[in-house]
Design goal:
single chain, mainly alpha, two-stranded antiparallel ribbon, 12 helices, globular
Length: 360
């Protein structure tokens, strides 16, 4: 358990102290945010704010995780490495996207095909590797069974291992794409995506610790309600490191933001959330824990779908936070209220997670 506290504390310290250094570096290089012309006019004042802050989040997470392992003299687990690979890989794709936007002073970065190719390469590698590396108890980091709070009876390998692998790769990449886009869409106001991410990853610290205490691998007489996740405590350490990094970054990202996370941060955080949900066997539960992200995506889907069918708009602007912004709500008010809603979703999700165990 010490690794959880050390990794979270160290990553928070690195992000808190490292972010202003990175801000000064970006200002010297004139790496500032380019603002979309079709966005809220109030955002024009943010033009030139340093971006690519996701570099700090990723770096602080990695250093916090390594520090936790060194302090407790533990070896890295495959599950932790896979989540961090997914986070760093998608963060790299986001970094290239951000860099092109900045260097060419436009709102569009990587073209669609290279971006999809990069995300797909990282996602497929993660998915294939997640079904390998069985431990002494013959458990792999992921399972071909679709999971809610634990693995369900829906097995993607119903027609054999090859079909199972293909369907799992598709399922995993759907989750990775969905969560990456969800965090990316939420990253539209100062501190919004960072604060929501902080709350959601904090919940996964609790999930990982509880799964470790009730693991089928470590209980002398494991009951029917034990958890099959292979490396739950290591996933909790990773979640703690990400939570700490978001804490430290939020200090500088809160309104008025001194730096934005950019696609570097949003894709990385979305990938990490997808990886944690897959390897902790909580794929569907994650949609409740991360319900604030889901609401933002749904607002965008509803807006686009309704406009195509009727030519009219449901919201003044999508995603959802821009609707309230154009309705006269202050930016800080929107952010704080969305944080509250995110906390409520997390409370419901963690409550369902715990209640299922108690009921069993």
């Amino acid at each position: 358990m010490r690794a959880v506290l050390i990794s979270g504390g160290l990553s928070m310290l690195v992000a808190l102290l490292g972010t202003p250094l990175f801000i000064r570096f970006l200002i010297r290089r004139q790496y500032g945010q380019f603002i979309r012309q079709d966005g809220p006019t109030a955002h024009y004042t943010k033009r030139g704010t340093p971006t690519m802050g996701g570099v700090v989040i990723i770096g602080a997470t990695l250093l916090g995780w390594v520090g936790g392992l060194i302090a407790t003299q533990q070896l890295p687990s495959v599950s932790a490495v896979l989540v961090l690979f997914l986070m760093t890989g998608l963060g790299t794709v986001g970094f290239l996207d951000d860099f092109i936007k900045i260097s060419r002073q436009r709102s569009l970065g990587l073209k669609a095909k290279p971006k999809i190719l990069g995300q797909g390469l990282v996602g497929i590698t993660f998915a294939v590797a997640a079904l390998q590396f069985p431990n002494a108890q013959f458990r792999t980091p992921a399972s071909t069974r679709v999971s809610f709070i634990r693995d369900t009876d829906i097995d993607l390998a119903f027609a054999g291992a090859t079909v199972g692998l293909i369907l799992f790769v598709l399922w995993a990449n759907f989750l990775i794409t969905a969560w990456s886009n969800a965090v990316n869409l939420t990253d539209g106001l100062d501190g919004l995506a960072t604060g929501v991410s902080l709350i959601v990853f904090g919940a996964y610290v609790l999930v990982g610790v509880w799964q470790f205490n009730q693991s089928c691998q470590f209980l002398a007489t494991a009951g029917p309600r034990c958890y099959e996740a292979r490396d739950p405590l290591d996933l909790a350490v990773v979640a703690a490191a990400i939570t700490g990094a978001c804490f430290g970054f939020l200090w500088w990202n809160a309104s008025p933001a001194k730096i934005f996370m950019g696609d570097t941060g949003s894709l990385a955080l979305g990938g990490a959330l997808a990886g944690l949900s897959i390897l902790s066997r909580t794929e569907i539960l994650a949609a409740i824990i991360g319900g604030m992200f889901v609401l933002v995506v749904l607002s965008d889907v509803i807006q686009i779908g309704f406009f195509r069918m009727t030519g009219k708009r449901v919201f003044k602007m999508a995603p959802l936070h821009h609707h309230f912004e154009l309705s006269g709500w202050g930016e800080v008010t929107i952010v704080i209220r969305f944080w509250i809603i995110a906390g409520l979703f997390v409370a419901v999700g963690v409550g369902i997670f715990y209640g299922e165990w108690v009921a069993g």
